[in-house]
Amino acid sequence: MSPLRRKLSSARALALLTGVGTAALCNLSVARADDTTTPYPGVTHIRRVTSSQRIHVVKIDLSLKTIRLRATRPPGGKTVPTFASEYGVHVAINGDFGTRTAPWKTSGLAMGDGQVWSNTSDSAHEGWVAFGVDNRALLSSPADIIAAPEDWMREIIGGRPQIVDQGVALDPVPPWSFDGCDPHFCQNEPRSAIGLSQDGKTLILATIDGRYTGAAGMTTKQVGALMVEFGAWRALNIDGGGSTTLVIGSEGGVVNKPSDGCCRVVSNHLGVQIVEPFGDLTGFVRHAAIDNEAEPIAGAVVSLSTGETATTDAEGRYTFTHVAAGDVTVTASAAGYTDATVDRYVAAADTTWGSIAMFEPDEAPDGAPAATGDGGPAPSGDADGGCETTGQSGGSTAAALLLVLLAGRRRPRGLRRRAAPG
User: Fold this and answer.
1) Which residues contact 218 (CB under 8 A, 6 or more apart)?
2) Residue 404 — φ and ψ, nearest 5°?
3) CA distance linking residue 414 with residue 394, whole number of Å
């Protein structure tokens, strides 16, 4: 018996023992050893070629501060290589199903750079994957619906059907798939997928080529099995067919072979950016409330738990550059005021806001932390969706009333992406 026939016979025998169907074996076929590279720190690229499949899997270590996720801002509508170039990302993949022409719209919820696509929303039709500061990640099933992104979410792409749940590959049936097998989920097609490990620390991207000799494509359940093999606890199928495109900059750009040739314009995208583990930190120091522009505190000494110090200018503003990414405590001191602090996470390659409100001793007699937040003027078109505060303990009735009145006119927090003007 030839070596090839021996391998196939062994595989079929294993299939009988494990219950794997012969159709699945035809798609798995006889593979060469996976070709594995590390194009960037924390990024592993696995290339698998069989007699009938051309597969690319990318695993990203989200625990690294040098990894940042970027999704497309509205209005979208770019090829994957163009997105990668314009957003400065090193790895990029197509996103959700969407329109083929402007106005660009995705099938599910979309968010990029902190901006929600106003013409999108979440529904039982699609799931989504969200990313935030410190690479916090969450994959939501189609059945779990949110009215709006939570404050921590910065980047979101949608997809359907859900193909992995709790480490198990799924059939395209409710509640995992609103559509059942339509459109083409039970047929072999080019596919793209995104998944997360159980601990949320590993992002898994995959593309499976199809529609040409040597590239049969897969069903969504077969893609689910592939994602489980590479460590996905939950995963979504995203736009496929001619949209399936994977870019790895250091390996020449587009690494797969899109069935349309290269490259289709798609609504949105997801990218992985490799950055230095440093960011900027800025904010205003003001009397009583962070948005009290009429009472800046000039000459306040602002110190970080990492040891750096700065002094506020005439507008009460301080700035630190090249701050090590991670948690930091910011403390403001000024003559005639009680010291105040705020805790922030400095995101790599971003500007983090850490504005501080200070109080006179009679306003905070116990020396308790004053109300603080990371506000300041928000850049046009960007808002972080909320205002974090820590409560003031004690204090006079007048001070409490002042806080209530000022709180009523607070504005959304400034974005970490870009420093506010001024």
Assistant:
1) 27, 53, 188, 189, 191, 208, 210, 226
2) -60, -45
3) 29
Q: Domain boundaries in the chain?
A: 34-274, 278-407
| Residue 180 · residue 172 · CB < 8 Å | yes
Closest C-alpha among 171, 283, 288, 301 to residue 237: 171
* Residue 393: exposure state from Cβ atoms within 10 A (0-12, 13-18, ≥19): exposed
**Virtual torsion, Cα 182, 183, 189, 192, nearest 10 deg:** -100
**pLDDT, tens digit, 9 for 90 and up, residues 117-151:** 999 999 999 999 999 989 999 999 999 999 999 99
Residues 6+ apart with CB under 8 A from 38: 44, 45
Q: What is the pLDDT of residues 157-171, one digit of tens each?
A: 999 999 999 999 999
Q: Are 96 and 123 in contact (CB under 8 A)?
A: no
Q: Which residues touch 397 (CB under 8 Å, ≥6 apart)?
A: none
Q: For residue 379, with 0-12 CB atoms within 10 Å meaning exposed, 13-18 middle and 19 or more buried, which class applies?
A: middle
Length of the chain: 422
Contact criterion met (CB below 8 Å) for 368 and 397: no
Contact criterion met (CB below 8 Å) for 325 and 256: no
Alpha-carbon 348 to chain mean position: 14
Read off φ and ψ for residue 303, nearest 5 degrees. Answer: -125, 150
Q: Which fold has domain 278-407?
A: Immunoglobulin-like (2.60.40)
Name, in order, each residue with C-beta under 8 angstroms of 43's C-beta and a sequence gap of 6 or more.
58, 59, 60, 61, 67, 90, 91, 272, 274
pTM of the model: 0.79
Structure tokens at 6: 């021996």
